[in-house]
Amino acid sequence: MLTTNLNNGIKVVIDDNKYINSALIGILVKSGSIYETKDNIGISHFIEHMLFKGTTNRSSREIAEEIDFVGGQINAFTTKEHTFIYAKVPYKHMNLAIDIIYDMLMNSLFLEADIQKEKKVIIEEIKMYKDLPDDLVFEMMSEIMFKDNPLSFPILGTENTVNNISRNEIIKYYRNRYNGENFVISIAGNVDTEDIIYQLNNKFEKFRNNNFCDETSKNNIPSSQSKVVIKGEVKKTEQLNLCFAIPYCSTYSNDYFEGLLVNNYIGGSMSSILYQIIREDLGLAYEIESSVETYKDAGLLEIYVALDSKNAIDVLEIIKKELVNLYKNKIGAYHIDKYKEQLIGNYLLSIENPFNKLYDNGKELLDIGFIDADDKIINQINQISEESVSKFIDKYFTLNQVFLTYVGNIKNKIKFEQNIHDIFC
What we know:
This protein has helices at 43-50, 60-68, 94-107, 112-130, 133-145, 159-164, 167-177, 193-204, 256-266, 273-281, 312-329, 333-350, 354-368, 374-382, 386-396, 413-424; strands at residues 2-5, 11-16, 22-29, 73-78, 83-90, 183-189, 228-234, 240-247, 287-294, 299-307, 402-408. The strands form two sheets. Strands 1-2-6-3-5-4 form a six-stranded mixed sheet, sandwiched between helices. Strands 7-11-8-10-9 form a five-stranded mixed sheet, sandwiched between helices.
């Protein structure tokens, strides 16, 4: 793997693999909801869409056809911290992928007619996600956990903010964020490294590099909130969707891998405590899982369950009981060794996928300026100890503050929420 800078300073990482038939290019940009204001929520995601609407050299159809007709794929997504634009092609067509991605970044037109059409598309996307209760509970969780903080902003925006975005605002935001200081070029797959560097220097030599790179404030969880914070939406659904969360480690914290291990032990796998008790032993839910959502400066552990509403309070009591038990009794050496091996196995399987390497390499280089080698990460996991896990649990599992969101057919909302308070207060 090579990390370097182009002649104009743009950071590049190339992860060469001659044993596959594909080549991938991705541009990771510091453009996400954490850089937005309450007035322009969703503008990062909107610009991601607009990059596909045509350039001075290609129409939107031509962008799609040129990639499609070589058997490739081109796509993008926006998170709270980044926008990622990427293409995957058979390796002999890498020149084409570079040219198209560069054209989209440098020469997009942002035509008023296209902006107005895309507003309709994105508003339909917002409505679609509102109809998906398993997505809605996680969106609501961000709102209550990161109250009045940009991490609470919905990535898609709201119908109101999307409708009010103007072309001038789009161009201003685009020029501020889409410059060499704010992005990384990530390459993976079957490529000739020397040739790739030559091509990138040739293409990106005139790319904007205006030394503008505003950083956001720390995205910490507000400490003034109540011990138990609940937000629910009553909807006519077959199942109740519940999400329980506590503040957790951040992406680059020293105890990040302890956090992954504890998550897997709690509910992150089929062998986990909550999965075995709630699903396998008691049959109270089909879907029960925990996950770690981390950002550069904050994080949360989320426990999601979909179940019959009549079982909700019983399941929450079990969750509370098992988290208290974890805090009191910790995790023994036997289970720590087992879950360390699981983490290493998960990581090794993940890095076999060139897309994962493409994204992870770019994200690390953009966020912290370097990329940890695979053997270093495995070594960090191997260094997890009973003592370090116990310290992690003492730090995060006091249950001094808990958050809960739900979407479903609750008959008595006031009584239901009071029962939740009674469990966790």
